[in-house]
Write a structure and sequence with these properties.
The complex is a heterodimer of chains A (about 500) and B (about 120). Helices cover about 75% and strands about 0% of the residues of chain A. With about 500 residues, chain A is an all-alpha fold. The model of chain A has no long low-confidence stretch (mean pLDDT about 90). By secondary structure, chain B is mainly alpha-helical. Chain B is about 65% helix and about 0% strand. Chain B contains three helices and no strands. In chain B, helix 2 packs antiparallel against helix 3. Classes of the chains: A mainly alpha (about 500), B mainly alpha (about 120).
Chain lengths: ~500, ~120
């Protein structure tokens, strides 16, 4: 009997430090909150915030790392750290929105914050995973926690419907992903991403096992990022879930899913990209178009933002179709700006929410500018950034992604994307029109006056503006994060920086 | 294209088998209906009461808690089988795993999930 070779596992605690902190924090918060009453749970939120900040500091310390750990199961690179940082920022903003939301809606705080941290853990694991099984585990930890969070308004039928739809569809998509992983394993003989890439450089094009596997994995990730035609669950799930959870679904889940999606497809399935990039082209075109066209007719702001999130997934898929090192950096920058902008928009929605009142209709925003000019201005800022108006973060994100796509020769896809951006202006600006140019009795609930919600709004607004008007460090950082991790593996493309 | 033929053959064969079985069943199965045969359970007690009766939610909690320990045992068996080779490292891993589960148990206990009343 040979002794188990520990050296072969290559245990490195440092790269998974932020993960361990978030995972242990989730359990600590769960135990700390056992005796906390539902209406006095603010302290638990502050504790969660402090623990997220701790993980953020440790993740920040990991910047500049490169290599793999745990025999390839953990990818310790700047790409992973970039995503971990953005995911932690998003989680922190969601906690800020939740601190007063939970007592106001009578929700159990210990379980809420623990599930939030567990799903954050899953997202970070997806970003850090270096083999298909680790990424799959991250996928599941993230998804299962969010399924429960979506149904957290236990007495609301809509919330129950959201959780059930999300769960059934999500579990279904998980099966697709897992089957895809199995087939890719069968075709390449390994689950580790590096060796998969190496195996693909052999003539493997057209191998039916590999193609089926890639297709099934595409379906699995397509569900999670809400790409058309796998988007059906999105509006119902977003509408019914408690609004801070909706914000987390629209930003955090998308960040985690795209982290895994990009690492697997853009980078490690790069050698067979002719096989899947045409599929991605079509999915991107449909995702943008369907998302934007259906968003036009929405009367509920959460449903509108759900379709807007679908459309934005489409823009990111344009970047993925473009492939190459520059497109990767552009997507990272886009996601950073998208995180602040979208979280801000949902924070503004929370400010108008009141328990037991149907407050999510866009007509309820009429006259907001007169009664609460600050809130209306912030909401207008986020909506303009989502539209892609300079000088906000959303504009430059689109600019970089479309530039990279043009450099890759995807002229028609960029034409579709730009037309879609114009369409999207209609429904984003419709809300601004309601706020500024219509007479109405917009009522801001008690939540809109709480310091935590206002802080979340302010941080999101500052982020949206700062990343937009002073993009240099962020786009350089995003490009560096992507290229220091994968630059050697990808074809060099023309720079997107002017 | 030729590589897809076996898959097509498999699908065709599977469909054929299902069709044959259903047809044979239709042809040869005896069908003598009687009130007894229409009962949900042909042997045993005659059913009584509504199937939509309510159960205490405690059963659900107990089932969930059972699941925790059920899965724990399944995942500990591979470790137990290789316990000598994995030595101290494996013991540490197993203890961490159990500690995580204990957190869940302590939470359920503190929230009163174990009290039947």
């Amino acid at each position: 009997m040979t002794a188990f070779n520990l050296a072969a596992i290559d245990i490195a605690w440092l790269p998974i430090c932020p993960l361990i902190i978030v995972g242990v924090s989730a359990m600590a918060v769960l135990l700390a909150g056992v005796r906390v009453r539902d209406d006095e749970s603010q302290g638990l939120g502050v504790l969660t915030l402090a623990l997220i900040a701790l993980a953020f500091v440790f993740a920040l310390g990991l910047l500049g790392q490169s290599g793999i750990a745990f025999a390839g199961a953990i990818a310790a690179d700047n790409f992973a750290v970039f995503f971990e940082l953005v995911i932690l920022i998003s989680a922190a903003l969601v906690v800020l929105m939740s601190i007063d939301y939970l007592p106001a809606f009578g929700l159990s705080a210990a379980e809420y914050y623990a599930l939030l941290l567990f799903s954050t853990f899953g997202m970070m694991l997806m970003a850090t995973g270096g083999d298909l099984i680790v990424i799959f585990i991250g996928f599941e930890v993230m998804s299962i926690s969010v399924y429960v969070l979506a149904g957290f308004l236990r007495r609301s039928l809509k919330s129950n419907e959201a959780a059930l739809k999300y769960f059934v569809m999500g579990a279904f998509s998980t099966a697709f992903l897992l089957y895809g992983i199995a087939l890719v394993y069968g075709a390449t003989g390994t689950i580790k991403l590096g060796p998969i890439r190496a195996a693909l450089s052999n003539p493997m094009a057209g191998n039916p096992l590999l193609l089926s596997g890639i297709g099934l994995m595409l379906v699995g990730f397509g569900f999670k990022v809400a790409a058309v035609p796998f988007h059906m669950w999105t509006p119902d799930a977003y509408e019914g879930a408690p609004t801070p959870v909706t914000a987390f679904m629209a930003v955090g889940v998308k960040l985690g899913a795209f982290a895994g999606f990009i690492r697997i497809f853009m980078v490690h399935l790069g050698p067979v990209s002719p096989d899947w990039s045409i599929v991605l082209w079509v999915i991107a075109a449909f995702t943008m178009t369907v998302g934007n066209l259906v968003a036009l007719v929405q009367v509920n702001i959460k449903r509108m933002l759900a379709y807007s999130a679908i459309a934005h997934a489409g823009y990111i898929l344009v970047g993925m179709t473009a492939a190459g090192s520059q497109a990767g950096g552009a997507i990272l920058y886009y996601l950073l700006g998208y995180a602040f902008t979208n979280l801000g928009a949902f924070a503004a929605v929370i400010a108008l929410e009141r328990r037991g009142v149907e407050s999510d209709l866009i007509t309820n925003y009429r006259g907001l500018a007169v009664r609460h000019p600050g809130l209306a201005a912030a909401m207008a800022l986020f909506l303009l950034s989502l539209t892609g108006v300079p000088p906000l973060a959303g504009f430059l994100g689109k600019f970089y992604i479309f530039s990279a796509a043009l450099n890759a020769g995807l002229v028609w896809l960029v034409v579709i994307a730009v037309i879609n951006s114009v369409i999207s202006a209609y429904y984003y600006i419709a809300v601004i029109v309601a706020m500024y140019m219509r007479e109405g009795e917009a009522v801001v609930g008690a939540l809109g006056r709480r310091p935590a919600v206002i802080t979340a709004l302010a941080v999101a607004a500052i982020g949206t503006v700062l990343i937009g008007i002073y993009p240099e460090p962020y786009i350089t950082g995003a490009l560096h994060a992507f290229n220091s991790a994968f630059g050697a593996a990808l074809p060099r493309t023309a720079s997107i920086l002017p | 294209m030729l590589t897809w033929v076996p898959i097509g053959v498999t699908i065709g064969f599977a469909a054929l088998v299902v069709a044959i079985m259903v047809t044979i069943n239709r042809l040869v199965a005896p069908r003598h209906r009687s009130p007894v045969k229409d009962l949900p359970f042909e042997c045993g007690n005659p059913p009584s009461g509504s199937a939509w009766g309510r159960f205490s939610v405690h059963f659900y909690l107990v089932a969930i808690l059972f699941l925790v320990f059920d899965v724990e045992v399944i995942l500990l068996i591979p470790w137990a089988a290789e316990i000598r080779r994995l030595a101290g490292f494996g013991l540490g891993e197993a203890l961490i795993f159990i500690a995580v589960l204990v957190v869940g148990l302590v939470y359920a206990w503190q929230r009163g999930a174990l009290d039947w009343d």
